[in-house]
Amino acid sequence: MLEALQFEFMRNALLAGLMASIICGVIGTLVVVNRIVFLAGGIAHAAYGGIGLSFFMGWPYLAGTVGFSLVAALVMAMVTLRLRHRADTVIGVIWAVGMATGIILIDLTPGYNVDLMSYLFGSILAVPSADLYQMFAAGVVILVILFFYYKGFLAMSYDEEFARLRGVPVGLLYFLMIAMVAVSVVITIRVVGLILVIALLTIPPFIAEKYSGSLASMMAIAGLLSAVFTYCGLWLAYSANLTSGAAIIMVAGAGFFASMLIEKIRAATRRKKNQQTANAGSAPP
User: Which domain holds residue 83?
Assistant: First the structure.
């Protein structure tokens, strides 16, 4: 794969994968610990409306899609806060309407020439240099926000009621977190596509949770795992001529099942060791 680095599109793909991996590690951790995977999925699919709007209006892809996704995400956040018993229904409706809006707008776009597959399953090899700067700027903003409000996110993620009692602005932080999820989803769509985006947001944090003792370490490990999955998937896609987004998720899926197997083996080993210790302790002198 080293010879491929002479091509600009491959260098752009590696940079895009690195930035998306860092963002997925950070935001995916918040998604997992706050149990908002379904909401993140709703944002991902509603983002297709932003893709259609961008092409129909002739706007830059990232700017138009981020704007549309932010509106959809904040509506979902408002619903989950005020109508929790109806949240899944409303999110499902916004999910479906967002995708339908995107498809219709793309159909109505003059000179229709949009590759739908690239947005459904990712087009990391087609990320232009201009998008890299926008991804970098979005990533920096997300990391700065997290740095300043880390303690608030930590308190909200693990004990919302305690956070409120301590004076943490839970409502504001929740909306801020959902907005960051929306931006992260749009960035990740470029890498793996909107159908597979949830896998990259959830699999690395799920694995990282087993080997971390704090929220910060979980984010770091998840970011590292995301980068490993992304680069291994890119290598697999390049070597076997596969769709890059699907290859990345297949590698992540293999990592997921491997972590589950390792956890089962470790649990069985601990049970066996405890049983041997108990038997030794109960043996007559």
Answer: 2-197
Q: Helical H runs in the chain?
A: 8-33, 37-57, 61-82, 87-108, 116-121, 129-148, 150-158, 160-165, 170-192, 197-209, 215-240, 244-282
Residue partners of 213: CB distance under 8 A and separation at least 6: none
pTM attached to this predicted model: 0.89
- The four Cα atoms 101, 124, 118, 230 give a dihedral, to 10 degrees, of -90
- End-to-end distance of the chain based on CA atoms, in angstroms? 64
Amino acid letter at 218? Answer: M
Which class for 212: exposed (0-12), middle (13-18), buried (19 or more C-beta within 10 A)?
Answer: middle
> How many C-beta atoms surround the C-beta of residue 145 within 10 A?
16
In a domain, 243, yes or no: no
**How far apart, in whole angstroms, are the C-alpha atoms of residue 191 and residue 187?**
7
Cβ atoms 121, 196 nearer than 8 A: yes
Return all residues near 121 (Cβ < 8 A) that are at least 6 apart: 192, 193, 195, 196, 243, 245, 246
Question: Rounded to whole angstroms, how far apart are CA atoms 234 and 237?
Answer: 5
In this predicted model, what pLDDT tens digit does every residue of 167-224 receive, in sequence order? Answer: 889 999 999 999 999 999 988 887 888 878 999 999 999 999 989 989 999 999 999 9
Residue 83 sits in a domain whose CATH number is 1.10.3470.10
Q: Please enumerate in sequence order all residues whose Cβ is within 8 A of that of 225, keeping only pairs 6 or more positions apart, or say none.
A: 25, 203, 204, 207, 208, 255
Per-residue tokens: 274: 């405890």
